[in-house]
Amino acid sequence: MSMEELKQIGKYTIVEVIGQGGMGTVYKAVDTIIKRPVAIKMMTQTSFDKETARKRFFREAQAIGQLSHPNIITIYDVGEYENMPYLVVEFLDGKDLKTLLRDRVQISTVDSISIMIDICDALEFSHKANIIHRDIKPANIFILKNKSVKLMDFGVAKIDDVDLTQTGTILGTIHYMSPEQIKGKGV
Of the candidates 9, 29, 71, 138, which lies 20 to 30 Å from 93 by C-alpha distance? Predict the structure, then answer.
């Protein structure tokens, strides 16, 4: 069965595919027990073959699971379906900042400042918990319809002093990296 034909993952009924990327597929689904919409991020079979990618996927669950903050996406569940790991997170209604910028949506100065304050609050909270996101970019900043902000995708986060990078490997999106990160120094 292809990922597009998937109808059910445990107690979650798949509604539609809402995104695909290098690590996997994201579905909109419904939790059949408490009747709330959720998003399910599932690793693809190809990325599942790589043990480091699998570890990084579960580290994302661990990172998000340690953080309870209004500006950080909430994780509800983690598991495996047919040997493919998945995360269940809150379903966000709105658009990521990358899409808003691409579509040239006008954002007022007041709203822009509010967005930056919310992102900074989320990062400060995360850093105090010794979790460094390492991939802050417009695609990972979600603006909800009510104008609140959620920081997403902790897939390359560094937790405490544990690092899943290999020597000479850079994680993140190069256009948004800090100079320290590009040089391979501590973040």
Answer: 9
Q: Which residue has the tokens 């902790």?
A: 154
Those residues whose C-beta lies under 8 Å from the C-beta of residue 75, and which sit 6 or more positions away, are 61, 64, 65, 87, 88, 89
Using alpha carbons, select from 94, 89, 77, 152 the residue that is nearest to residue 118: 152
Q: What whole-number distance in Å separates Cα of residue 1 and Cα of residue 151?
A: 32
**Cβ neighbours of residue 111 under 8 Å, at least 6 residues apart?**
147
* pLDDT tens, per residue, the chain with 187 residues: 455 578 999 999 999 999 887 778 999 999 999 999 999 999 876 655 567 777 777 877 888 888 999 999 999 999 999 888 899 999 999 999 999 999 999 999 999 999 999 999 999 999 999 998 888 999 999 999 999 999 998 877 788 765 544 444 445 565 555 666 666 666 5
Annotated catalytic residues are: 135
Tokens 């190069």 sit on residue = 174
Q: What is the torsional sign of CA 38, 94, 19, 43? A: negative
Reduce the DSSP state of residue 153 to 3 states and report it: coil
